[in-house]
């Protein structure tokens, strides 16, 4: 039997909650939607929501309080022996990781609503403001490979989320989050089984499955 791809998940959550995306990944791993060995979960909060989920499912928990430099990230990867990295609500800049094997999920369109400081409610606020100016009609859940610049790696998944006339940043966030939870595990599985891939340097090298329809051009 072929060994399952070894995956580590970086998820910040908060000091007293969060980690909903992590929970979805773990539970979808149990059902087989995500065909991986989740080796460990990393958070910068010692006893937050991410830790609670890791403990609940008996997954190795790693507290990472920094410094957030390449050597420290690489140390975690080496010590856990993982092949793939998923950033799921990780709010620190990831450095020193293999861009071919590191992915992130983002609650908005990139590059318009990505980059340093564009996370969580900041993304939804900026999107609603742009909508009110007539600049956009929809938001999106985006997944992309990770380079050492925030949200700069090539996107391989964009699922549009229509903005309603009465939307607020909060109501838009709820619907975007629902889409994130519904698709992250499935698309992550395509990446770790190399049906979606790139060479880590040239975004034009991006390879997608035949008939794949989840990237808006």
UniProtKB/TrEMBL annotation:
The keyword Glycoprotein does not apply. GO terms for cellular component: cytosol. It is an enzyme of class 2 (transferase). Pathway: Purine metabolism; IMP biosynthesis via de novo pathway; N(2)-formyl-N(1)-(5-phospho-D-ribosyl)glycinamide from N(1)-(5-phospho-D-ribosyl)glycinamide (10-formyl THF route): step 1/1. Keywords: Purine biosynthesis, Transferase. Residues 17-183 form the Formyl transferase N-terminal domain. GO terms for molecular function: phosphoribosylglycinamide formyltransferase activity. One of its GO terms (biological process) is 'de novo' IMP biosynthetic process. InterPro entries: Formyl_transf_N, Formyl_transf_N_sf. The keyword Nucleus does not apply. Its EC number is 2.1.2.2. It comes from the Bacteria. This is phosphoribosylglycinamide formyltransferase 1.
